[in-house]
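Repro:
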Amino acid sequence: MSRTIKLDQPVLAEHLRRADHLRRTFRRNGVAVLNLVSSPGAGKTTLLERTIEALSPRLAIAVIAGDVQTQIDADRARAAGARWAGPVETNGTCHLEPWMIEDRIADLDLAAIDLLFIENVGNLVCPAVYDLGEHHKAVMLSTVEGDDKPLKYPVMFRNASTMIINKTDLLGLTDFQIDRAEENARRINPDLVIFKLSCKTGEGLTAWFDRLLEMANSLLPHKTQGNPE
């Protein structure tokens, strides 16, 4: 016999409170924050490297790199030219949580940063429901995965504002169809902004860079005027 247990407060209430505080802190300091999520191997770190190399002359970029083990991704971001890069080793946890971000930014002068990337643990399930105080969540899908992933992991694609289809240079090597992936994604979230790109050839990267510059510039008044919200 089953019982229904009524919860008076959301299970994630404390996480949401912390995320909201983080968002206000980032906004107050004029820092645009993007939470980048994908399955393992989709190309998050390579995209970050290309982005840092291209935009670091114009923006002060920081990276929080989450992984189950090792600091490899943070080291790669630092080598690419990030102003600051801090690892988060979760030791088995399949996602980042707001308190982990709080711990890392304690070492960071936010006033000196324009754009912060949070590279989440490779997973399309758990990171979908954890707000980290970001302004945008971007989900990455590569052309060597299934074009039905938006249907299989709908919460992630519903909660994202941006979808990146990476590795367009490998189209034709599998049955992946870009049009089908876009159609499936828009069935879940019609408002998704979609970028199709290749970190190897550079195809589509300019549009991605322009989007990030727009994000960062939108918060410049808060950095220059010190607005409280």
